[in-house]
Amino acid sequence: MIEDLEENWSKPCGCCEGWWACEGVVRLSKWQGLQIIALGPTFLQWDHLRFICVIVSLKFLASGSSFFSRVVTMEPMACGWTDAPHSMGTTIMAVEYDGGVIMGADSRTTTGVYVANRASDKITQLTDNVYICRSGSAADSQVVSDYVRYFLNQHTIQLGRPATVKTASTLVKELSYQNKSFLETGLIVGGWDKYEGGSVYGIPLGGTLLRLPFATGGSGSSYLYGFLDQAWKPNMTQDEAEKLVVKSISLAIARDGASGGVVRTVTINEKGVQRKFHPGDKLELFYEEIPPRPSSLLAKS
């Protein structure tokens, strides 16, 4: 029976113009009594529309092992971006200055080449004095942030004092490193505490922990390293550091298709936290950038 199924599984059938999976799945479902899961048109009348079915591996069934499923898209010109996970193909950064830290990020969240959210907030609060910039898989970075926020809350209650930036960064590092085979996220932790003042820690993919005077991450960061090497200087003022962060992210937006939208900044120092919003049409334009045009809908209103 298995040999017969494998033979038929590899043959094209007439109902779907040469697609190899159709007849084998039908025969397998009759033999095993399995239900075919179909999203979209009926199995024999898909007519070049997108169609998904679940195929059970014959080899796993023959060996008696737990079966293995995989999803096949039966479409001549399949577009992978429709199934891509939410990713913050991103530009994030943080800079130490004399007295605190400034963190910044763009706001574009993508699903493959599709912009799923043009105004997302990638700078997440962990405690009153510590924030985290998220890049990579949106789901992975959010779940790490949620776990660390919970642990830091418990830590603060037990010790009776606010958690330090180093403590928060170490927790992020531990979660990232212990789950490095499963997580696809790069993170930057920044904040202020009475022991070290303003400090920035980078936790790239894999879970390494690095104390840095400035850190950048995401798909747009590759356009910034040379610029930051030249533009950053120690003991900057708050105004100089903020201008550097906004200009750096604007440069990345100009070159990186996965970065865009607006620029958000968070300033953390002894006085507290200050958030700022920089609209996309107010950002500095660079070489070959097309100036934004006012929307016709806004003009009518």
UniProtKB/TrEMBL annotation:
PROSITE patterns: PROTEASOME_BETA_1, PROTEASOME_BETA_2
Superkingdom field: Eukaryota
GO cellular component, one term: cytoplasm
This protein's UniProt keywords: Cytoplasm, Hydrolase, Nucleus, Protease, Proteasome, Threonine protease
Cellular compartment(s): Cytoplasm; Nucleus
InterPro entries per UniProt: Ntn_hydrolases_N, Pept_T1A_subB, Proteasome_bsu_CS, Proteasome_sua/b, Proteasome_suB-type
Active site: T90 (nucleophile)
Catalytic activity: Cleavage of peptide bonds with very broad specificity
GO BP field: proteolysis involved in protein catabolic process
Any single Pfam family the record assigns to this protein: Proteasome
Molecular function per GO: threonine-type endopeptidase activity
Subunit structure: Component of the proteasome complex.
Purpose: The proteasome is a multicatalytic proteinase complex which is characterized by its ability to cleave peptides with Arg, Phe, Tyr, Leu, and Glu adjacent to the leaving group at neutral or slightly basic pH. The proteasome has an ATP-dependent proteolytic activity. Component of the proteasome, a multicatalytic proteinase complex which is characterized by its ability to cleave peptides with Arg, Phe, Tyr, Leu, and Glu adjacent to the leaving group at neutral or slightly basic pH. The proteasome has an ATP-dependent proteolytic activity.
Family: Belongs to the peptidase T1B family.
PANTHER family reported in the protein's UniProt record: ATP-DEPENDENT PROTEASE SUBUNIT HSLV (PTHR32194:SF0), METALLOPROTEASE TLDD (PTHR32194)
Protein name (Swiss-Prot/TrEMBL): Proteasome subunit beta
Species of provenance: Ceratodon purpureus (Fire moss)
